[in-house]
């Protein structure tokens, strides 16, 4: 979470909001965790409830990894879906709401080797994580409940954790037909991911299927850490979409789109060009990770080559390529992300994907050229100290003649 000085919290005690937030995240998290913990029957070592569905495969200790099966204690049926619902949260749930939802899930964790795929399948644990509806479960748990909430920049926050000696799925998972077929087919993971995406499955279920080892050739299936699976799915789908749009006719005009959510604000410029993508992140003082104004950038060229793999960029890139595929055009893409102090805790990169998707429903206008579009965005930035034309990746687009400019439109 954002580093708020401890002395400020001591003076405030959750009552004066000296940090500038509208409510105290420490107290809210404490209430949610305490409520969840009270529903775990530690006296008999039992945890009952539905998974939204939700699962996180860890990466520490690979090839022996933790699998966290997330359950809403004593919650049955559709009500559990609220605890993990990225598309449904967008625009409705605040950052405080999301932290409360995640704090209210109890994470049953067990250790598995990455080739224990069929063990999870036979016990329907992996099937429960890809179900179209919440699935009821019963876990035998041991040890103490760890009440610390774990945050991550790519995956969703994880609530209180406890060791599960046994997880029993007590309700039949409802697996989509297309996914059920692929589980039993000897198909490469990349091909399976694309088949699911093009068949209408959302990326979140595809990520869970890949992460729990349900996709790939039968003899090579393995558990995949969730962080890796998220970026892999974004990359596989994005690369496929790029092949579709790379040689399409260019867009005829320069457009600017905008959307904001959870203290993250995105301006997206689409301009006539063969595909070339620019990603700029502006982190303001007091925002998450940044104690001072910080700017990062990267570029991706016509052939899909980029300098650094960035999970946030891959999520935004997927959304932008979906839009270009929809309008059947190629274009240069410039995505400018501002991160403000409102974003005080990381909730995973799903909100980047969803916000950029929705930005394309909100066009600010059309412009004569890239320079005019940049001037508009410059005037809308939260801090005038940021000079867009001086950022390395943007200067590259403005000042250099790229080889793809010689391609016919």
UniProtKB/TrEMBL annotation:
The keyword DNA repair applies. It holds the Pfam family Nre_C. InterPro entries: Nre (IPR033167), Nre_C (IPR006979), Nre_N (IPR006978). GO terms for biological process: DNA repair. The keyword Ligase does not apply. Keywords: DNA damage, DNA repair. Residues 18-289 form the Archaeal Nre N-terminal domain. Residues 302-406 form the Archaeal Nre C-terminal domain. Belongs to the Nre family. Involved in DNA damage repair. This is DNA repair protein. The lineage of its organism: Archaea, Thermoproteota, Thermoprotei, Sulfolobales, Sulfolobaceae.
């Amino acid at each position: 979470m954002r580093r708020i000085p401890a002395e400020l919290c001591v003076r405030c005690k959750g009552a004066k909001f000296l940090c500038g937030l509208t409510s105290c995240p420490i107290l809210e998290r404490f209430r949610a965790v305490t409520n969840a913990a009270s529903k775990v029957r530690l006296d008999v070592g039992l945890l009952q409830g539905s998974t939204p569905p939700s699962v996180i495969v860890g990466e520490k200790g690979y090839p022996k990894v933790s699998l966290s099966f997330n359950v809403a204690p004593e919650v049955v049926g559709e009500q559990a879906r609220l605890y993990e619902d990225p598309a449904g949260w967008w625009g409705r749930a605040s950052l405080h709401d999301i932290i409360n939802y995640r704090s209210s899930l109890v994470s049953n964790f067990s250790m598995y080797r990455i080739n224990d795929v069929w063990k999870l399948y036979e016990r329907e644990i992996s099937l429960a994580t890809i179900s179209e509806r919440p699935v009821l479960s019963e876990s035998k748990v041991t040890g103490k409940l760890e009440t610390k909430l774990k945050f991550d920049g790519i995956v969703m926050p994880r609530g209180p954790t406890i060791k599960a000696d046994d997880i029993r799925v007590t309700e039949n998972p409802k697996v989509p037909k297309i996914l059920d077929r692929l589980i039993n087919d000897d198909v490469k993971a990349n091909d399976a991911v694309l088949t699911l995406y093009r068949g209408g499955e959302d990326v979140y279920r595809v990520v869970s299927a890949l992460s729990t080892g349900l996709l790939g050739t039968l003899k090579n299936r393995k558990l995949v850490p969730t962080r890796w699976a998220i970026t892999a799915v974004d990359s596989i789908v994005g690369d496929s979409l790029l092949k579709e749009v790379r040689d399409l006719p260019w867009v005829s005009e320069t457009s600017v789109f905008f959307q904001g959510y959870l203290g993250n604000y995105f301006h997206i410029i689409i301009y006539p060009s063969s595909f070339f993508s620019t990603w700029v992140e502006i982190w303001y003082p007091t925002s998450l990770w940044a104690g001072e104004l910080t700017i990062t950038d990267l570029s991706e060229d016509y052939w899909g080559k980029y300098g650094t793999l960035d999970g946030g960029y891959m999520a935004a890139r997927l959304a932008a390529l979906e839009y270009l595929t929809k309008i059947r055009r190629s274009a240069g893409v410039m995505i400018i992300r501002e991160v403000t102090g409102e974003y005080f805790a990381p909730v995973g990169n799903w909100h980047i994907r969803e916000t950029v998707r929705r930005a394309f429903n909100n066009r600010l206008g059309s412009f004569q050229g890239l320079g005019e579009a940049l001037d508009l965005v410059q005037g809308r930035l939260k801090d005038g100290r940021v000079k867009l034309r001086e950022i390395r990746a943007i200067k590259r687009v403005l000042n250099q003649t790229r080889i793809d400019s010689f391609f016919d439109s």
